[in-house]
Design brief:
CATH architecture of the largest domain: Alpha-Beta Complex
Strand content: 35-45%
Shape: elongated
Number of helices: 3
Radius of gyration: 20 Å
Number of domains: 2
Helix content: 10-25%
Keywords: Hydrolase
Order of helices and strands: EEEEEEEEHEEEEHEH
Structural class: mainly beta
GO cellular component, one term: nucleus
CATH topology of the largest domain: Nucleoside Triphosphate Pyrophosphohydrolase
Protein name: Nudix hydrolase domain-containing protein
Pfam family, one: NUDIX
GO molecular function, one term: ADP-ribose diphosphatase activity
CATH class of the largest domain: Alpha Beta
Length: about 220
């Protein structure tokens, strides 16, 4: 293991704000091209000790607001409102995954610039309007500090550039693009065969929010 330079000579770690634990012996267990794994010891106020293991990205530019973006792309086409979704095989899950378009923020990019670029690359759709950008949020904070901003964009589905969108994928990517009517999103998700396809949590939370907003 590689000793983390944030440790003091006695093995203690600088105490983060609002942390109720005493942290010590933080170490990088493995360091790869894209991620690293770490572990740190912690002690509770009553003296109980444990070890926390976590995953961290190696790719976040210093000035970037988050590691990446997820994109809620609302497509208005032929008088209807659609959401752009993607489907791709995720090796860690061992299944296809239904997701929002997403990607990492490059150096020098804002979250909104990254969202427009990633939408074009993954789906071929061109957005001319950013509606909103969320606050920083974390995808699975018990396991990783992987962070994102959620960016909502509008797409004119009747515009010439969006009539036959062409993806600009990396050589290692294999992504299927779907347009699902927003009013039918939860029904579409509910009818998926979970033995072969799973749903990304950000997308599922959005679909549940739409459904719950209509409940009395």
């Amino acid at each position: 293991m590689t000793q983390n330079p944030s440790n003091g000579k006695d093995g203690t770690v600088a105490q983060p704000a609002n942390c109720p634990y005493q942290l010590f012996n933080q170490e990088v267990v493995w360091n790869g091209k894209w991620i690293q794994t770490r572990q740190v010891g912690f002690k509770t106020s009553n003296g109980q000790q444990g070890v926390w293991q976590s995953v961290h990205r190696n790719t976040k530019p210093i000035e970037a607001p988050a590691d990446g973006v997820s994109i809620l792309a609302r497509v208005r086409k032929e008088g209807k409102l659609f959401l752009v979704l993607i489907k791709q095989y995720r090796i860690p899950c061992g299944k296809l995954c239904l997701e929002l378009p997403a990607g990492l923020i490059d150096a020098g990019e804002t979250a909104q610039q990254a969202a427009i670029r990633e939408l074009k690359e993954e789906t071929g759709y061109t957005s001319g309007k950013v509606v909103m950008e969320s606050k920083l949020c974390f995808l699975d904070p018990g396991l990783t500090d992987d962070s994102q901003c959620l960016v909502v964009v509008d797409v004119d589905g009747d515009a010439p550039e969006n009539l036959n969108p062409i993806q600009v994928l990396d050589s290692t990517e294999s992504i299927e693009v779907l347009l699902i009517e927003q009013s039918k999103l939860m029904a579409y998700i509910s009818n998926l065969d979970s033995s072969s396809i799973v749903v990304e949590s950000t997308l599922l939370a959005y679909a549940m929010g739409i459904q719950f907003a209509t409940l009395q």
